[in-house]
Write a structure and sequence with these properties.
Layout: H1 7-10, H2 25-37, H3 43-63, H4 71-76, H5 100-104, H6 112-115, H7 119-130, H8 135-151, E1 155-158, E2 161-166, H9 169-172, H10 187-209, H11 217-223, H12 225-242, E3 267-270, H13 277-286, H14 300-315, H15 318-326, E4 331-334, E5 359-362, E6 371-372
Parallel strand pairs: 3-4, 4-5
Antiparallel strand pairs: 1-2, 5-6
Helix pairs in contact: 2-3, 7-10, 8-10, 14-15
Length: about 375
């Protein structure tokens, strides 16, 4: 419709100016909807907040044209049922290699790397449901189960077996705006939120059992407050440790000095290939249209253009420069070798770039540039 929405203003304010997926505000909206369903005070405020958060996303999805992902891609980014219970040694190093063999058997969909729920939240959540009669806990358990089932995607996958059993998401992916989603596994996050409600109740019950809230004094005398505090602290540490993944400190990205010589106009990074994350990173700094980059959903036209560029690049000769010029590019950036996947490291047309009537920037040489124009000699 072209109607400006509140997010148009929000995206000008740091840190929201760095975000690219306002659709994730849906999760925040669901939080407020859950408060409404639970009957908490301030229901009118919760409803208003939900509408404010969800309306821009809903209108944007309705009015936007997006590429629907193929069925196979949606299935690939679905949770494997075993992944809920089998941790990945890389993302859950707490258990070392204990589950390495089991994790290796999860070969379809996404396993513990994305879907592992954690042993303590699972145990606490199940016991919390079994030991309570509170409506809020039952509601949280039901909603959590719904989202966990949806995260399994259109068909059920268990370890290395594609069962072919149709799941509820197979119907949901036919309904806008869910037909645009390609990663059902992300429903795990929403399911975990509701599982947390059930687990929190059991945690409070344990606090009472250890006398930490001074409710069950007889149990307190038996166990002692100190022992209770130590036990609860250990459980909290265990829960946090399951979700902790140590990683090396990343060095800040320093833009290469050759970017300042780019002229106004589209940029083609070479060697050309369809998943060039380095080209997308450089665009953050030079702000020009790019020919490659990294797209989650590529059109057939885009893939065909990349194929033509790749063939001309590998073949060498003046054809590559003629093709790039005809496509409207004004800059060619030669990516540093260490940012190019080994399978893409071919430089057939590289010698011909010095005579190409375009602005050529070479970023391979220790971050230093070599700028070339038609008629220039290196």
């Amino acid at each position: 419709t072209g109607l400006s929405m509140p997010y148009a203003l929000l995206m000008r304010v740091p840190p929201f100016d760095l975000g690219r997926t306002p659709v994730r505000f849906v999760v925040v909206g669901l939080f407020f909807l859950m408060l409404c369903a639970a009957g908490v005070r301030g229901i009118s405020v919760a409803i208003a907040a939900s509408l404010v958060i969800l309306a821009p996303v809903a209108l944007n999805l309705i009015g936007d044209e997006a590429i629907r992902p193929p069925f196979g891609q949606t299935s690939h980014y679905s949770a494997n049922l075993a992944g809920f219970f089998v941790p990945n040694p890389y993302t859950t190093p707490l258990y070392g290699n204990v589950f390495e063999d089991a994790n290796a058997k999860v070969t379809l969909g996404l396993g513990g790397y994305e879907a592992f729920l954690g042993f303590l939240p699972l145990v606490f959540g199940v016991v919390g449901v079994l030991r309570t009669r509170r409506r809020l806990v039952y509601l949280g358990a039901a909603l959590g189960l719904v989202f966990f089932v949806l995260s399994l995607g259109p068909t059920l996958k268990v370890l290395g077996t594609e069962t072919g059993l149709s799941m509820p998401y197979a119907l949901l992916m036919r309904v806008p705006p869910f037909d645009l989603g390609r990663t059902p596994v992300r429903f795990v996050v929403v399911g975990l939120f509701f599982l947390m409600l059930c687990a929190a109740l059991f945690f409070l019950m344990l606090c009472a059992a250890f006398g930490l809230d001074h409710v069950m004094r007889e149990t307190t005398r038996r166990w002692g407050v100190r022992r209770g505090v130590a036990t609860m602290s250990l459980l909290l540490f265990w829960t946090a440790a399951e979700g902790y993944s140590p990683f090396d400190k990343q060095q800040p990205f320093v833009p290469p000095p050759g970017l300042e010589s780019l002229v106004e106009g589209p940029v083609l990074n070479v060697p050309p290939y369809s998943s060039d994350g380095y080209a997308a990173m450089l665009q953050v700094f030079h702000h020009q249209p790019i020919g490659t980059g990294y797209l989650s959903r590529a059109t057939p036209e885009y893939l065909e253009e990349i194929r033509r560029l790749r063939e001309a690049w590998n073949r060498g000769g003046p054809d590559f420069c003629d093709l790039v010029t005809s496509l409207g590019f004004r800059n060619i950036v030669i990516n540093p070798t260490h940012f190019v996947p080994p399978s893409q490291r071919s430089y057939g047309a590289l010698p011909d770039l010095l005579t190409c009537p375009l602005n050529v920037v070479d970023l391979r040489r220790d971050g230093r540039r070599v700028r070339a124009r038609a008629g220039d000699a290196e």
